[in-house]
Amino acid sequence: MAETKPTATVKASTPASAKPSGNAISLLAPILCVIAGYLIWRFILGSPSGFNKPGTGWFWPNHDEPKNALNKMYLGGIIVPILIGSFLTMLTFVIERFLTISKATGTGNNADFIRKVQYELANKNVDAAIAACDRQKGSVGNVMKAGLHKYKEMIHNSELSTEQKVMAIQKEVEEATALELPMLEKNLVFLSTIASVATLLGLLGTVLGMIRSFSALGEGEGGGDAASKLSVGISEALYNTALGIGTSAFAIIFYNIFTTKIDGITYGIDESGFTLTQSFASLYK
What we know:
Number of strands: 2
Helix content: over 70%
Distance between the termini: 20 Å
Oligomer: single chain
Radius of gyration: 28 Å
Low-confidence stretches: 1-18
Order of helices and strands: HEEHHHHHHHH
């Protein structure tokens, strides 16, 4: 039993050392995306060449009469760069989660992999089962491999009872699972938050745009020209709603896709622990 202590120490230290840098990157990404959103809004959508009447100023030039739809989006106001930043943040974490969860899924079908391990254990070929874990990789393979090493150790242990050995295997599986699950669920909170907040930001931008439009209408003399300006102003304000709803819709879709995949991996992890404990209890009474 003394040989298991170094392994436990390595497992505990690895996530602790990686966690600060990972959290820093996760917190820095939204800030950089919002800055990128402002730059896109200011220098691409708000390029002076895209307006018949370019304005002055640096932070928020008062351009007028846009030449195309992209330049009209600029007139949606200061909420537009925040919405663009939200979309870029959503896209960043979608790519990050896709790469992470694809790696965690492993190289093959988890159900076939578990059946392969069950077959090898039924034939008391633990080394072949461990080799299958090395080929499978992913979260299920990692948890199964950790459990199999403890499984192999318990086979040659003559000091503990069968029930204690099964409990030791189960504990090892739980410890390995505790290291895998946070990695799978990490950063999903950003997608769920964007899914809720993006629509509200879009509505806020629309309301602010409507306030500006009606304010301009109240300062005018009325008539057809005023009605035309009001309709243009409302159209520009609705760009905020479109951006917010679109960003929220994509965030919800990908959030549900990722949670479904994580549920499948979690089921495979649970099945791995059940396989190991039941196999040991039946073969090594």
